[in-house]
Predict the 3D structure of the following.
Amino acid sequence: DSGVTQTPKHLITATGQRVTLRCSPRSGDLSVYWYQQSLDQGLQFLIQYYNGEERAKGNILERFSAQQFPDLHSELNLSSLELGDSALYFCASSVENSYNEQFFGPGTRLTVL
Amino acid sequence: AQSVSQHNHHVILSEAASLELGCNYSYGGTVNLFWYVQYPGQHLQLLLKYFSGDPLVKGIKGFEAEFIKSKFSFNLRKPSVQWSDTAEYFCAVNAPDSSASKIIFGSGTRLSIRP
């Protein structure tokens, strides 16, 4: 158990819908990172927040957005869902604003039908 | 732009065999390098990392990796694998001095160990 929690574990929804994935970092960690893992794209970095502010952006689609709240938990919002958005979405956290040592959560498996 | 290549998609070994998984990156500046492991049904865990200093890095569970700057490589090694090493292994690179600092993962190498 890494100490990072993600909810829900599984999510099944339809195309065109909007979903919110939630991540709670390890106690004391200020950085939260979001990743997408799919069979065709592999593991892709989406976005990073540090202490409430966006710090780095990867291959995140415009239909996706994220935020980090004052209590440091983070949410990833996926809208206008497409079949290709089906993937495992991981959250990771670290103490500092660096990729030095990230602790990954168990992931949320999203299935878009 | 940074990129990472893991040329071995699936490696099958017998227990006690030696392991070397290839990782090559493309970026001309300073890099931080990582190897992560994902055991079946589990989350990613950091195996080892290289930031600076000794290019031979030792990680957990008997793994090590060598950073060879001239070859842009960071291959993962283990002298004697065990059945419990069956997992997917990801190499990753980060360019800390880049204005668009982000982390790039390779496509992963699936390692299967025959008991």
User: Anything to note?
Assistant: The longest strand of chain B covers residues 87-94. The radius of gyration of chain B is 14 Å.
